[in-house]
Amino acid sequence: MIRVVGRRGKGSFESQLDDAAKGQEFVRIDCTSNNTDSVMREGLSPFYLGPVECYDGLVSQTFERAWQCAKVYPWTVGADGNPNAIYFSWRNAMWSEKGFGDKMSIRFPVGKKNVGKCLYAWWKVDGEFKKLGYIDGRKYIYLPLYAKAVVKTEAFRRLVELRDSGKNIMLIDFDGYNPWHPHYGFTSYSDVINCPLLKMGHGFVLAMLLDGVIRVEDGEVKYADGLMEPTGRVYSPDLRKLTEEQKLERGAKAAGVTLEEWTALSPSDRTLLRVAAKKENVYARGFTKAAWKRLSMAEKFELALGGSRR
Question: What is the structure's pLDDT at 103?
Answer without folding.
Answer: 45
